[in-house]
């Protein structure tokens, strides 16, 4: 393959990182439930939280996750802090009720949240106790989606990380692809790997618990999402080996990601080219069309989803944009390093957030496009900046060749809209 080359001016892997630990403006980890519950068809996410948590899931996300958000509020309203023993009884009662009513549930996640009353409840203990009772039909796990502990994509990381220790042990030589992908995108990826002769591939999360296989010392894993730091560590603790690669966004990222796997499994360059040449050509053509409005434009990323670094790599190298600042909530060298290697030197790389200071930098930069959370987008739009909501990037299929044009299109739409509005105003 024509491997993506490090940029002539050097990459960003060793660039100084501006580390900020101030106030941050991002959704909490409960948000991950929105895409995880679609992906894991026999799972149920029981949020132990407050009315705010219920509103986040029902209103902001526009979905009804749990018909009984009262469960969380019932604990808070009916149990005082001294009565935490009652909280465990209450959890047992609600879980029993739920499982009796919904025998299709095979995996139940008890998801913690922010209120101090909830933080004090030992959900791990509850999950262990309930698992002992309901195994093997139902597996009960717990993680935290609290906004104090997690940014919005970290909810998926926490959910997957809590599954890793209970996956069965296996010695099978296999590839595990980690990160929830829309089914259609997952099928495309599996199709490409199969065409190369790589068939022992499993995914975490699987659509159903019965579709899961184990993990062990002969498992190699590739991350399909860049926000899976805890899951990465949990898999290494189980003896699995990570295949570092740029994230599969755009032609270059997808090709490099697939190539890392192909090399590991001994696929020849001829077979690799035969499988990838046609979809690569389609991706390049689609990107060229969709990036017409992006070329020569500047972009500023607020830290939000941890997708920022691979997206900046895609937009600068394949769409002709210039990155001014690339902020990420966290930077893991093992995960983000391959993308940083390819990101042309120049942008300020920042980790974490001090939102007021960063707003000042964004206002001074006045980039053609600013990528940020929903809470910042409206005020910045009012100041005349074109914005892109980071959250859309996790709800839209953007991985691999066939989605590469759509990915560029997501960024060009706000710029097109802005230029149309300007034209109308001028008429
Ligand atoms: S977990 Fe915390 S930040 Fe998230 S909705 Fe509930 S209270 Fe709000």
Automatic annotation (TrEMBL):
Cofactor needs: [4Fe-4S] cluster
InterPro entries tied to this protein: LIPOR_BchN/ChlN, Nase/OxRdtase_comp1, Protochl_reductN
UniProt cross-references to SUPFAM superfamilies, sorted A to Z: Helical backbone' metal receptor
This protein's record includes keyword Ribosomal protein: no
Keyword Iron-sulfur set for record: yes
GO biological process: light-independent bacteriochlorophyll biosynthetic process; photosynthesis, dark reaction
EC number from the UniProt entry: 1.3.7.7
Cofactor remark: Binds 1 [4Fe-4S] cluster per heterodimer. The cluster is bound at the heterodimer interface by residues from both subunits.
Source organism, top-level taxon: Bacteria
Residues that hold [4Fe-4S] cluster according to the record: 28, 53, 114
Family, as annotated: Belongs to the BchN/ChlN family.
Subunit structure: Protochlorophyllide reductase is composed of three subunits; BchL, BchN and BchB. Forms a heterotetramer of two BchB and two BchN subunits.
Function: Component of the dark-operative protochlorophyllide reductase (DPOR) that uses Mg-ATP and reduced ferredoxin to reduce ring D of protochlorophyllide (Pchlide) to form chlorophyllide a (Chlide). This reaction is light-independent. The NB-protein (BchN-BchB) is the catalytic component of the complex.
HAMAP family attached to this UniProt entry: ChlN_BchN (MF_00352)
Database matches in PANTHER family: LIGHT-INDEPENDENT PROTOCHLOROPHYLLIDE REDUCTASE SUBUNIT N
UniProt-recorded name of the protein: Light-independent protochlorophyllide reductase subunit N
UniProt organism field: Flavimaricola marinus
């Amino acid at each position: 393959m024509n491997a993506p080359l490090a940029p002539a001016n050097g990459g960003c892997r060793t660039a100084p990182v501006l580390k900020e630990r101030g106030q941050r403006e991002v959704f909490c980890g409960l948000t991950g439930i929105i895409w995880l519950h679609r992906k894991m068809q026999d799972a149920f996410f029981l949020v132990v939280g407050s009315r705010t948590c219920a509103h986040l899931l029902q209103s902001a996300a526009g979905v009804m996750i749990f018909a009984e958000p009262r469960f969380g509020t019932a604990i808070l309203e009916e149990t005082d802090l001294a009565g935490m023993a009652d909280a465990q009884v209450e959890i047992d009662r609600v879980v029993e009720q739920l499982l009796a009513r919904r025998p299709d549930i095979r995996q139940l996640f008890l998801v913690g949240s922010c209120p101090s009353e909830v933080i004090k409840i030992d959900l791990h203990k509850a999950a262990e106790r309930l698992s002992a009772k309901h195994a093997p039909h139902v597996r009960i796990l717990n993680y935290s989606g609290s906004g104090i502990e997690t940014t919005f994509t970290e909810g998926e990381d926490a959910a997957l990380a809590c599954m890793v220790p209970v996956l069965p042990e296996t010695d099978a030589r296999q590839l595990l692809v980690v990160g929830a992908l829309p089914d259609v995108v997952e099928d495309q990826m599996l199709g490409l790997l199969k065409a190369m002769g790589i068939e022992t591939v499993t995914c975490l999360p699987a659509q159903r618990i019965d579709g899961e296989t184990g993990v062990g010392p002969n498992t190699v894993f590739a991350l399909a999402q860049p926000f899976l730091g805890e899951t990465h560590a949990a898999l290494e603790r189980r003896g699995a080996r990570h295949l570092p690669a740029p994230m599969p966004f755009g032609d270059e990222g997808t090709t490099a990601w697939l190539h890392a796997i192909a090399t590991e499994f001994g696929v020849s360059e001829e077979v690799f080219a035969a499988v990838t040449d046609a979809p690569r050509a389609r991706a390049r053509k689609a990107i060229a069309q969709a990036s017409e409005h992006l070329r020569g434009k500047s972009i500023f990323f607020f830290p939000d989803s941890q997708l920022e670094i691979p997206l900046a790599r895609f937009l600068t190298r394949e769409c002709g944009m210039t990155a001014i600042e690339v902020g990420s909530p966290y930077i893991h060298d093992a995960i983000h390093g391959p993308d940083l290697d390819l990101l042309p030197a120049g942008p300020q790389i920042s980790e974490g957030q001090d939102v007021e200071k960063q707003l000042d930098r964004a206002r001074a930069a006045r980039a053609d496009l600013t990528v940020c959370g929903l809470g910042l987008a409206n005020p910045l739009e009012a100041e005349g900046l074109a914005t892109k909501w980071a959250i859309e990037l996790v709800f839209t299929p953007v991985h691999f060749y066939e989605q590469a044009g759509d990915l560029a299109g997501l960024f060009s739409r706000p710029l097109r809209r802005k230029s149309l509005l300007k034209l109308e105003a001028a008429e």
